[in-house]
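Retro notes, structure queue

What went well: the backlog is down to a handful. What didn't: a couple of records were mislabeled last round, so from now on we paste the full input next to the output in the thread. Example, using Nucleoside hydrolase from Nonomuraea longispora:
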Amino acid sequence: MPTPVILDCDPGHDDVFAIWLAAGHPEIDLRAITTVGGNGRLDQTTYNARVAAHVAGIAGVPISPGAAGPLLRRLSTAGSIHGENALGGPELPVPSVAADPRGAIDLIRDTLDTADQQVTIVATGPLTNIALFARTYPDRLSRVREIVWMGGSTGRGNVTPYAEFNSWLDPEAAAIVLDAGPPFTMIGLNVTHQALVTHDVLARVDAVGNRTAAFGVELLNFFNSTYETDQGMPDAPLHDPVAVALVAAPGVVTTARTRLDIELHGTETAGATSVDLLNTLGRAPNASVGTGIDAGRFWDMVEDAIRALS
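Corresponding output:
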């Protein structure tokens, strides 16, 4: 039976591919999409989620905006990577998919309440919406099977030397969600940097030949160009779909059960994820953390999902 999923995201190029993988993979039942300020402003990320659904012919999945910015900090978007509209590259169509009138927090609540089994939350942006949900409806957390988050790293960061963007933007939210109760899995840069958009990957996506693939190639070409300029990586890592892939096919990403803490106060380390893989602190494990990926299988999944869409 497919796993019911709520996808909380901040599209963003890689978030679009996360939406497509969640909608196109047979082992995932995508129930709702919620958006948050992150890679772009909330109005942009919500619009871009609607564009992703429109292009791929995804119907019947409500899309609802949530938090415009972090709990305590100022929003700082990722224009140097994702462009001024958070989805640079192709000309964006006017989406036929409307935003749901409910806010993200209430959409998450309603999705959990109407599901006949526990629901997995996959979050591919800052965890602001999920933290607000945990604080607003703590009685509903038992209906969450697990929370899988693309964020953090077992090593270095990408927006500061120590912090990954999603964790750095709202570390307070990440700390709240980590302690909220449902099982928590972190998929960090150490894993996603093993899933690179090479020339072979671009050729495979292009060869699918449908509207989704054509739009996706434009996204990936832009993403590669900004990653080369900003990060010195000519082949960009496609971060967010890796979190979806773990849910769709658990063997594609390897994880370790370990201790995870979120740094909140360091002058140079705010947002850093402290992953104690060697148990040097002797603290009880509280999370699963991604350690590796079968990149070939991952790209097979992405290609197959795009092929299943419009």
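Agreed that this is the format going forward. Reviewer comment attached to the example: The longest strand covers residues 253-262.
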